[in-house]
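Sample intake sheet
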Amino acid sequence: MMPRLVSVVALLALGCHSPPALDQAPGQLAGILLHHQVSGEKALDAVRYFYADTSDVVGGWTAHYGDAPSLMLYVATTRDTVVAGTLITRTLDRVTSGETPFRDPSPLNQSGGSVYRMTGQKQIHYLFRFGADVIWLSADPDVARAALSDLLGGRNAAPDAS
């Protein structure tokens, strides 16, 4: 099996299959129940806060877990995997430039794919993609790693390389 941690160009050149879209929130993450999920324009407004350029975003949704909430998912659906990879790159560039309250983006190797970890607003943030979906997971530090593990494990697939 070919390693999944490769560039977008290599993925396209080799014709690797991407996992299906993440079209709805899991019922719970890190043992915390889904409080609510929002789609439509209200969700897109929230998605725009996190991502650098949403001109190629064709849909999306948000999900809040717990009453506080202690973790949130922000999913942006783009036209295709190339646009998703570009969106991640632009978002990381924006974070690195200091234009956001998020800091210290660093790549992780999680289940063979690229996941970027950041800090900010007293939470841990993870940025990655599945196919044409770009996912931002924000979580309190005590549940962040478990939420990421549940999200990735529940998909039976590694995140795509960005």
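Comment: The chain is about 25% helix and 35% strand. The helical segments are 8-14, 41-50, 81-96, 144-153.
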